[in-house]
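[recover] target loaded
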């Protein structure tokens, strides 16, 4: 059995990765993630089990985060999409569930032209942020979650 069980959680408009605005979000889909995790973690990749969930609805994301707490998952790599910038409800959820979370973005939100994208409501409640590396952002978030547990 894997040592760590992590949830890769994707919010709105992230169900068709690889097809949506590839000039911004890249051409890879979530199926590219296992190979990237292996590349980043090397022999340690076997220590990690990844669960996946995507929803376009805020409530379903909150329900899945609450379930992650009940399941005792070791962490969440969370791309909340546009809810990052708008959702007090997701921030409230992350504030109490006690599951370490890394905020993930494919694009470098700080370098995007819309000022709203530079604001994160969930950022206060995560252990860190990875943005701008396409699908690799998720793999780096997984690596950060492993490291978070191993420095405890
Ligand atoms: C995103 C950035 C958000 O601003 C945007 O709304 C998304 C994707 C990213 O992965 O770069 O849907 O989270």
């Amino acid at each position: 059995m894997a040592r760590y069980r992590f949830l890769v959680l994707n919010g709105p408009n992230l169900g068709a990765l690889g097809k949506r605005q590839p000039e911004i979000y890249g051409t890879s889909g979530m199926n590219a993630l296992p190979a990237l995790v292996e590349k980043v973690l090397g022999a340690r990749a076997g220590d990690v089990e990844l669960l996946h969930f995507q929803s376009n609805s805020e409530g379903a994301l909150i329900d899945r985060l609450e379930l992650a707490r009940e399941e005792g998952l070791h962490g969440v790599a969370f791309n909340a999409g546009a809810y990052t910038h708008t959702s007090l409800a997701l921030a409230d959820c992350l504030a109490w569930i006690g599951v370490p979370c890394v905020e993930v973005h494919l694009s470098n939100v700080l370098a995007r032209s819309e000022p709203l994208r530079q604001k994160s409501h969930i950022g206060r409640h995560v252990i860190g942020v990875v943005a701008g590396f396409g699908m690799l952002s998720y793999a780096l978030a997984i690596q950060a979650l492993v490291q978070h547990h191993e420095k405890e």
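[recover] notes: The pocket of DQA is lined by residues 13, 79, 81-82, 84, 105-107, 109, 117 (CB under 6 Å).
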